[in-house]
Design a protein that fits this description.
Chain lengths: 410, 215
């Protein structure tokens, strides 16, 4: 049978016998009296594990898991507290162990077996109670108290669950190894030792770990809720301040002698890099990049018939000097105007530039000529940049002027 | 899935770009820094270039700070950045105040919170006081826009917040936003300003009760 069919069966049984179950839960303290009318229903619910037969009397009892589901549904805080009252359950277990010892000495084998089964049931119920309480706590944590909407209520719920974890933890302290190993519980009896010292101790230890994790998580959530509450109060306080005092502006604390560390945060810097053209491994990437570049149409002059160049005997023609580039001549004149011990400024001598030569081209041309100088020529001149920080892009500078002087000893 | 080592360079780059690393913006880098060994690695690297790794007090965002804040270059950068915060503080506070009311839980916007523009506009349009507030914050400063309809004003405000890194869009419709760790950083700075400007916090009072903006 598929899991879905099992669940179908379970839910339809719950639906059909809900009155019986609700009555047992509300009025019967979890017990169902076996009568001829409800025999079939009890049988079906027992098969599904919702009810189980007790040996002591002719009654059927709700399983702990189902009781817990009912408790959660009713959010019956009182019942949950009763559930975690481990001390009571331990006391009754202790009484049963005492009866078991008496039965072993003076009772029949059947009596011994019956009492041992009762002890087993108690231990099982105790383990189930602990596991179920831990499950409930984790359910609340995982839902992040979604059943309440305001921050205030979430904090209250959080504190309540913390309190519950603490109480459960205190209760678990009652079930430590020395107590369970003592003659009050396991003593030297091998069957009782197996029951108490293997199964129960392991279960308690597992739940303790779960509770430690739960506490950690709850404290984290509480920290977060308190932080959120503080943030909301901050917003409210600032909002009020801006309303009361329009134009309110906080002081720039970064301009104090001692800068408070809290306002310390870096301003972004350019972290881009250049392509490494010598790296073979990048070749295919570069090829792809270049291939994806948009092709720009090169402007070409309309093709005209090219006249054949006639070769004339050189002796028969007069030589004609080549026309010099006026900018080239101006740059030459600029560099030649430097006198030893004096500094000339590019913008100061812009008058040397040909007509319609912009400042930018003038500066570029002077730098370009300097870069083309031979080592010997460079030994004569010193070139300094007059820069300004770019107002928009940090880390960039724009050249506003150039200063040229003759190097000492040149 | 990328291994941890491959996250080192993008993490450092983001930090040097002055960005805040949080779950909403760069979840993989945020997870990378959640590992203490990676945090130490990044910090050691930053330390060599006179920077340090820092975390907001709610632990929801990482950012880089200068190691030596007395250096002149660092001072001017910090000053410029803090000045921007001061300039934008009023519009941001008014926006936070609005969203706190709309949220209804008493909590203000936190890193990781989800915002749906359709929900916001529905609530705003049903409350004249909030329409008026939206109109006001759209008139000047950070959120200044020329729109006259609440929906368009809200879109402009949200767009600005995305531009400035306070929100990231999610989903195809781009109508869903997630608050980033920049809000955590802002709250830390507000906390500092509050203490130094002696702005009184009304302890114990439910902050959501904002009389001036009752819906």
């Amino acid at each position: 049978m598929s899991a879905s069919a099992d669940l179908d069966k379970l839910f339809s049984a719950l639906h059909r016998h809900k009155d019986l179950l609700i009555g047992a839960y509300l009025n019967g303290d979890g017990f169902v009296d076996n009568t001829t009318e409800n025999g079939k229903a009890v049988g079906e619910l027992t098969k599904l594990g919702i009810l189980w037969f007790t040996d002591e009397d002719d009654r059927t009892r709700m399983s702990q898991a189902f009781l817990d589901i009912c408790n959660v549904a009713r959010r019956d805080e009182l019942r949950r507290n009763v559930n975690v009252d481990i001390a009571d359950r331990l006391r009754s277990t202790e009484d049963l162990v005492s009866s078991y010892r008496v039965a072993r000495q003076a009772g029949t084998e059947d009596e011994q077996k019956a009492i041992f089964r009762a002890i087993e049931e108690q231990v099982y119920a105790l383990r189930e109670t602990l596991a179920s309480t831990s499950r409930q706590i984790w359910q609340e944590i995982n839902s992040e108290f979604g059943h309440v909407t305001t921050l205030e209520l979430k904090m209250q719920e959080n504190l309540r669950v913390i309190d519950r974890v603490k109480r459960l933890n205190d209760n678990l302290a009652l079930i430590d190894y020395p107590t369970l190993a003592s003659p009050r519980f396991a003593g030297e009896n091998p069957e009782l030792r197996r029951l108490f010292l293997l199964g129960l101790v392991a279960a308690v230890s597992e739940i303790r770990e779960e509770l430690v994790d739960a506490m950690h998580r709850l404290e984290g959530m509480l920290f977060s809720f308190r932080k959120q509450q503080r943030h909301a109060r901050l917003v409210h306080a600032f909002y009020q301040r801006f309303l009361r005092d329009p134009g309110f502006r906080a002081e720039n604390y970064a301009e104090q002698t001692q800068i408070p560390n809290i306002i310390n945060q870096v301003v972004g810097i350019d972290v881009s890099g250049h392509a490494d053209l010598d790296n073979d491994r990048h070749e295919s990437t570069f090829t792809e990049l270049i291939a994806s570049l948009r092709k720009r149409k090169v402007q070409t002059a309309p093709s005209e018939p090219v006249e054949r160049i006639s070769v004339i005997d050189s002796d028969s023609m007069s030589s004609e000097p080549l026309q010099q580039d006026p900018l080239h001549e101006s740059i030459q004149a600029f560099y030649l105007s430097v006198e030893p011990g004096k500094t000339i400024s590019a913008m100061g001598l812009h008058s040397l530039a040909p007509d319609a030569c912009s400042d930018e081209i003038w500066l570029y041309a002077i730098i370009g000529r300097f870069n083309l100088m031979t080592v010997k020529e460079r030994g004569f001149f010193r070139l300094e940049y007059v820069e300004e920080v770019d107002p928009l892009f940090n880390g960039r500078f724009s050249i506003k002027d150039l200063r040229v002087s003759v190097r000492k000893g040149a | 899935m990328l291994d941890d080592r491959s996250q080192f360079a993008p993490t450092v780059e983001k930090l040097l770009l002055g960005e805040v690393i949080c779950e909403a913006r760069t979840p993989e880098l945020f997870q990378f820094l959640a590992n203490a060994a990676n945090e130490d690695d990044v910090n050691a690297y930053l330390s060599r270039i006179d920077r340090v790794l820092r975390r907001t007090s709610d632990q929801l965002a990482w950012f880089a700070a200068y190691k030596d804040i007395e250096a002149q270059s660092a001072r001017s950068c910090i000053s410029r950045q803090f000045s921007e915060v001061i300039n934008d503080l009023e519009p941001l506070v008014r926006w936070l105040s609005m969203t706190t009311i709309l949220n209804g839980s008493g909590a203000s916007l936190q890193a990781g919170d989800e915002i749906r523009s359709s929900d916001l506009i529905r609530s705003i349009e049903s409350a004249p006081a909030l329409c008026e507030e939206l109109e006001q914050i759209s008139r000047y400063g950070l959120f200044k826009n020329a729109q006259s309809q609440p929906k368009r004003q809200l879109d402009a405000v949200l767009h600005r917040l995305v531009e400035r890194g306070y929100l990231v869009t999610t989903g195809r419709s781009r109508a869903k936003y997630i608050a980033t760790g920049l809000w955590s950083r802002l709250y830390d700075l507000m906390s500092f300003i509050q203490a130094h400007e002696q702005i009184a916090l009304e302890e114990g009072e439910d902050a959501a009760q904002q009389d001036e903006l009752q819906i």
